[in-house]
Amino acid sequence: MGWWLSRALWLSALAVVAAGAQAQQLSPGFYNATCPALQAVVRRGVARAVRREPRMGASILRLFFHDCFVNGCDASVLLDDVPGNFTGEKNSGPNANSLRGYEVIDAIKAQVEASCNATVSCADILALAARDAVNLLGGPSWTVPLGRRDARNTSMNAANTNLPPPDASLSTLLSMFRAKGLDARDLTALSGAHTVGQARCAVFRSHIYNDTATNATFAADLRANVCPFTGGDANLAPLDPQAPNAFDNGYFRDLVARRVLLRSDQALYGSGGGNGTTDALVRAYAANGTAFAADFAAAMVRMGSLVGSGGEVRLNCRRVN
Ligand code: HEM
Ligand SMILES: *[C@@H]1O[C@H](CO)[C@@H](O)[C@H](O)[C@H]1NC(C)=O
Ligand SMILES: *[C@@H]1O[C@H](CO)[C@@H](O)[C@H](O)[C@H]1NC(C)=O
Ligand SMILES: *[C@@H]1O[C@H](CO)[C@@H](O)[C@H](O)[C@H]1NC(C)=O
Ligand SMILES: *[C@@H]1O[C@H](CO)[C@@H](O)[C@H](O)[C@H]1NC(C)=O
Ligand SMILES: *[C@@H]1O[C@H](CO)[C@@H](O)[C@H](O)[C@H]1NC(C)=O
Ligand SMILES: *[C@@H]1O[C@H](CO)[C@@H](O)[C@H](O)[C@H]1NC(C)=O
Ligand SMILES: *[C@@H]1O[C@H](CO)[C@@H](O)[C@H](O)[C@H]1NC(C)=O
Ligand SMILES: *[C@@H]1O[C@H](CO)[C@@H](O)[C@H](O)[C@H]1NC(C)=O
Q1: Domains, the chain
Q2: Which residues form the pocket of ligand 7, taking CB atoms under 6 Å from any ligand atom?
Q3: N or C: which end of the chain has fewer CB within 10 A?
Q4: pLDDT tens, 139-165?
């Protein structure tokens, strides 16, 4: 047997193992027969929410990231705590007083149930809603593979350990994404989500007070007007001040100008780490919004195929059946 053939057999064996480890096979037409109205219903629900409050598009996108990075995209993030029984992800460090959009997903789920009862998982609704949110803010669209199933358990600890912190170095970011099968290119493209939405003073204070490479005018303005050294923890600033609700490549120009809120953002550019890989990508995306849009869409599909071991289609996204 030639080396190439044994290598091919080995790779296909690995692929079978990987597929076997996945609970579900995803495909875009999964609900074609059982819920033909699905995509229109989800898009209408997201459009209504974004019209009411543009930031909600960003919030829904982040909800999907926080779902997928914790036990796979299984709607585990949507489970309410049940006092005395179950403590889930909502009150974890990264999510408490921060993650939002749960009511929007509830409203869409109710609409979906009205059209196709007990058929579509909350995890799939969230995957479609995140895609629509990006597109409604002016970003790309993409085909979403479907067929995820909803988790019956999760833990607060899983959220605390799987979600990257805002003071993460580049090597920490790379290894946390690598742990999900995502590479430096995925990390850089997906971080471009910070071209929309807002962050609290509490998470960017250390960057604007301590990181000297930050644009001095930018940091001084935030210190004076948004984020005092003590207090004001909940005060908000836009992650991309140039166009906070436009899904464009502005975030990458902010990185090059060193005008971003989070230390973990600036780590992608000019930190001297990563052998320049992320620096080169940041420059490429800053110069070419089309290249960013294409890579972002592809990376969202990869992140979205981190399936969990979920076993049901929840009737109410907040609790197990
Ligand atoms: C690379 C590591 C990442 C870190 C350390 C990080 C951290 C953060 C932090 C600290 C905030 C502000 C939270 C607050 O102030 O309450 C935030 C907001 C946000 N993040 Fe990330 N994030 C990362 C990657 C991502 C990814 C991959 C996505 C989506 C694909 C994403 C989407 C968002 C969005 C859209 C917001 C704004 C949400 C809103 O306005 O409600 N982030 N992120
Ligand atoms: C599902 O429907 C879409 C849109 O109508 C169509 O493009 C796709 O081919 C269908 N897929 C299957 C497997 O039927
Ligand atoms: C809570 O407890 C019940 C009874 O033991 C169990 O069936 C259920 O799965 C638990 N978890 C949640 C999230 O409700
Ligand atoms: C949907 O189906 C579930 C389970 O079959 C049932 O308990 C529920 O009452 C149904 N809801 C509606 C709105 O038909
Ligand atoms: C969920 O429950 C299963 C079976 O009890 C267990 O193997 C798994 O570790 C649990 N997952 C989490 C995140 O608690
Ligand atoms: C800045 O760094 C110093 C030294 O590490 C630390 O004591 C201080 O708390 C930091 N300030 C902020 C606002 O994070
Ligand atoms: C920092 O940003 C301001 C715009 O607010 C710009 O005028 C200035 O040149 C920048 N400083 C440096 C050192 O790039
Ligand atoms: C850095 O990147 C260059 C060019 O891609 C490569 O040749 C070199 O081996 C890399 N160095 C390290 C330490 O990874
Ligand atoms: C921008 O990126 C796209 C997609 O990769 C590519 O086709 C196009 O040629 C690039 N445009 C420029 C001006 O480099």
Answers
A1: 21-164 (1.10.520.10), 184-297 (1.10.420.10)
A2: 215, 217-218
A3: N
A4: 999 999 999 999 999 999 999 999 999
